[in-house]
Queue: 2 jobs
Job 1
Amino acid sequence: MTDNVDKLNELLKRDPDTGLYSRHILLQNLSRRIRENPKSPFAYGIIRMDEHYQRIRHYRDRQKILLYITAQRIKEIVGEEFLFQSDRSDEFLVIIPGVNSEEELDPFFQNLMDKISEPYNQPASDLSFGCHMGMALYPTHAETVEELMDNSEIALGIFEQRHDQGYIYSQALGEAHNRRRTLETIMTKAVGNNLQGFHIVYQPLVNEDKEVLSCEALMRWDAPGFGSVSPDSFIPIAEETGLINTLGHWILYSSILQVKKWREETGFNITVSVNVSSIQLEYSHYIENVRSVLESLDMDGECLHLEVTESTLMDEPEEIVKKLDELRDMGIKIMLDDFGTGYSSLSYLHQLPIDTLKIAKEFVDDILTNQKNLDVVKAIQSISKSFGLITLAEGVEHQDQFDLLIKEGCNMIQGYIVSPPVAAMEFSERFLKK
Ligand code: G
Ligand code: G
Ligand code: MN
């Protein structure tokens, strides 16, 4: 009887899918380790499967099998007694005893990365994924279990968000994290306080004769008591907090209203391009919101272009495609932003409901000196031509880039060569007054 109780107790400590000990056991292990051997250094880390693994969620059984195999692979490197299952099903927790510095930890990290991203056999030979890690050293980075948990989580969160191959905690990361938390608090207040400090700038999009046909509306934020924060910093925070829905609605309404005014003042049918984040598109009322903004301003969808990124389209392809179809039915044009930097294969393009490809700045930058980038641009041109898409090159700064891109068949240009993004008043003074 006691035997069975012991067995049951043992089973309960383990995760049913991977057979690993749970986080609860890990916490006990860590406390004991620190209490009994306070002078022995070790590393503690979180291993979280990456976004490619998340995409396998449509095949739950496969996901479980893959997780099991991954656990076996990690075990081989760190040893069974040092591997634990997190409360999240896509995450493992590890202890690596005896390491005291980044140099000593690096080989483990590399080994884990390589091993986890090795191809899988059946039933998943067509799938591959990797992981992100966050690790902290005892006692260098953390002296208590709580600090180890917090600091490894901070490292993981930051590197995951930056799509960075880093993994180890540092004081600088801790500060970056605090800055982010501070900004989050300030942003929540500012959005609630009539969008305090937020404003919109407009950058012209031109044709081969440098005639302004359209503009991209871009958000800027002077955070109260903090100063100007770049969108690359504040957009991810807005996405994480969900504030992007409010901000997105505001920039959509304001920029269409602006275009309406410009049209009334000049008689010229300028259009506006607005960035949409995947969080917004996933929101169930997004389409209705766009429709009601257009209706309330008495404007047609043809005044509006929406910019989405490749990763947005990869997330829930069918759902997103359906929504983009509905938007296009309203006359709205869809642009694929930062094209070339994501994962989408060129052959997949014709299945996507898009009208325009925005060639990413990184290909435009050294198009004159890097034959490979010129080849990429040529390939994009020829594909988009065969699919009847418009191409727009962004980040164009010099006349010789401009000339080459136009020669290659690019339809539109955006970049400092024409103008940086400017306030609405300056935009109409410079580009709409004849
Ligand atoms: O303007 P700037 O180059 O600093 O913009 C940096 C990034 O922030 C760009 O990728 C741009 O798409 C994004 N961004 C700017 N304004 C908005 C916005 O209104 N919504 C979303 N989702 N992204 C924006
Ligand atoms: O990712 P997205 O296309 O939304 O980013 C647009 C941003 O790119 C604009 O906010 C603008 O600040 C930036 N940008 C536009 N043209 C140029 C350029 O010629 N050079 C540089 N460095 N940045 C540019
Ligand atoms: Mn954009």
Job 2
Amino acid sequence: MDIKNLMVTGGCGFIGSNFIDHLFAKPDFQGRIVNVDKLTYAGNPENLRGIDIKYPGRYIFVKADICDAGLMQEIFDRYDIDAICHFAAESHVDRSIKRPESFIHTNIIGTFNLLEIAKVNQEKFQIFHHISTDEVYGSLGPEGLFTEETPYRPNSPYSASKAASDHLLRAYHETFGLPTTLSNCSNNYGPYQFPEKLIPLVIMNAVEGKPLPVYGDGKNVRDWLYVTDHCEAIWIIMQSGKRGETYNIGGNSEMENIVIVEMICDLLDEMLPLAGKRSRRELITFVKDRPGHDRRYAIDFTKLHRTLGWSPGESFPTGLRKTIRWYLDHTSWIERIKTGEYQQWIKEHYGEG
Ligand code: NAD
Ligand code: TYD
């Protein structure tokens, strides 16, 4: 496969910006990336500062909403797009519980727009890769793993909107022969994650000595994957995955939330001790549970491993240490997110809460 003009949607978000950085560093990608991002509160062009200089002529940024079908068609034509890697989404479960509207627009209508445009321009089109989540499968009991055969049972407005987009992708392959691949991945962590998600939120609060909110009894389980492992899996699937297929991606790293929060406390106590050597575990605060909170996610990625040879490279303890180091070294990035335009945007669109 020789992609010439790859449209990456949501490339200023957490995983999208890591993916662009990761892909440009690969010798087997020599094409151009057109990053289409609306720059919501979660989109931060600063994540890719200097990328256009590092890779001259190969990076284009367009501020645009994937819900604007006319504009998407224009971008498609202007840049002669021959592949899409689709990250753009509203991505936070708690926000979807408070205000689901934008999840329905971006995650469903936005994905539909892109699929339609790819369908209409199919003769020159190589691949539509859609990034999705393991949350579409619902919640597991204490045993078992999600496979690609697990029935969809989404429980939050976020996961329901992602499930809808996955179904549309499948339909466009089955009905129109669109060359698609789909990946359903577990929880990611690493640099540039917006501090509304568990790991960066706890790191930032713990650095500042603020309470560390743990929902419910803290025993909900997620399967954690370091973000660059996810990026590598996506690229492998885009290149060699069978068209029309789904691949699960996971970290082999099931952890209870409370264990993660304690690990962050202990690592920070070592890397940045508090005055008087107080333990940050004292900051842990159990709070009211999230409504409909899925108990456990865990991924079986045998298919991806057996057929395409991928497995995660980073272990959770080393990945977590690296992530904490990154947040400690990027205090100005954090400051800008906490103040100014991003906060203003959140207030305008989501109110204070
Ligand atoms: P993120 O919230 O950090 O970034 C989302 C990006 O999409 C932002 O840059 C935002 O500005 C952009 N965006 C939002 N609405 C848009 C619109 N209408 N038009 C154009 N751009 C828009 O999200 P993330 O954590 O990087 O997740 C990326 C993708 O991966 C999502 O599809 C998400 O469902 C999926 N995913 C995330 C995880 C995870 O743990 N973060 C796990 C599995 C799958
Ligand atoms: P999150 O990072 O929001 O990802 P997701 O809901 O997509 O899995 O949450 C990860 C887990 O951490 C989830 O079980 C909810 C829990 N959680 C807390 O206990 N406290 C928090 O402040 C947040 C944001 C999440």
